[in-house]
Specification:
Strand content: 25-35%
Number of helices: 6
Number of strands: 10
Oligomer: single chain
Structural class: alpha+beta
Strand order of the largest sheet: 6-7-8-9-10
Radius of gyration: 25 Å
Order of helices and strands: HHHEEEEEHEEEEEHH
């Protein structure tokens, strides 16, 4: 009992630490934490949402995202070929019926990603669950690093984003009520955002990163003859959730940052500057 209590205390402390550290360095911080408490490696990997990584499917040459939901040991399953890389003979796979739904979801959300993100990578993973099924929809968009071209007269506050990454992880549980042709959808969404702004001319740089998690539940009807109706229902919820998360991030991170900067700076009233300029001009003309 003492050992279990200590393990739970260590896991709680590790998760609390992960929440407080910058998501940008989460992978390195997680590796360091696992090195300190190797007995918690599986619990930490399954509990901590990490920034998504991209891999190319050896069979289809298509990119897909790596996460805990397509991982089995050290191998990752491609949603395009349904094969693990590195190869794994006894890897977990969805049932044949669910695999068809997974393939349709990947095609659907690939179009969703292109329309809303204009680039990036998306992947969908499905697995069987008692009373229904569960799935994970992950989307990653990275803005390539670019230099900020500025002149000496530019205001450092006008510096643009030099590099940015958006990772969204949507995990859904679907409980099917076959007799009523209705299903209960439980969606949990985590968004990780990281942005760098750099203006080398003025020695100005900033790093804004954070993550946000929200949950949403809906009871919706579906067509028993068309299982892809589940994808339409999930798509509506994911679209709604991403809109909410984007608004929340704007308010929490950008709004708070502007508030802190406004309080830290000793601003000069614009009207007073204009009055002083007019008085100086009048004095110059009189002279």
């Amino acid at each position: 009992r003492r050992f279990l209590a200590m393990a739970e205390e260590q896991l709680s402390a590790a998760l609390d630490l992960m929440r407080r550290l910058p998501p940008k360095n989460l992978k390195d911080n997680l590796s360091s934490t696992i090195a300190l408490v190797p007995d918690l490696v599986e619990d930490l990997l399954s509990s901590v949402d990490q920034p998504l990584e991209v891999m190319t499917c050896p069979d289809t040459s298509k990119e897909f995202l790596l996460c805990d939901y397509n991982r089995d040991g050290d191998s990752y399953r491609s949603p395009w070929s349904n094969k693990y890389s590195p190869p794994l003979d006894d890897g977990v796979q969805p049932s044949a019926e669910l695999r068809q739904l997974e393939m349709a979801a990947n095609e659907t959300f690939d179009k969703y990603r292109e329309q809303y993100y204009e680039g990036g990578v998306s992947s969908c993973y499905f697995w069987d669950n008692p009373g229904g099924f569960a799935c994970c929809v992950v989307i990653k968009k990275t803005s390539p690093k670019k230099a900020h071209v500025a002149s000496e007269d530019d205001d450092p506050r006008s510096a643009t984003v030099s590099q940015g990454t958006w990772d969204s992880i949507h995990v859904a549980e679907v409980a099917v009520k076959e007799g009523e042709q209705r299903a209960k959808y439980k969606l949990t969404t985590t968004v990780m955002l990281s942005m760098d702004t750099t203006c080398e001319l003025h020695g100005h740089s900033s790093d804004l990163s954070g993550n946000l998690t929200r949950a949403l539940e809906r009871d919706k009807g579906y067509s028993a003859s068309d299982p892809t109706s589940h994808i339409a229902n999930l798509g509506e919820m994911i679209e709604e959730m991403e809109g909410r998360m984007l608004d929340a991030i704007k308010e929490v991170y950008f709004g708070k940052t502007r508030e802190v900067i406004a309080q830290a700076r000793t601003g000069v009233d614009d009207k007073k500057v204009m009055q002083q300029s007019l008085m100086a001009e009048m004095a110059r003309r009189r002279g």
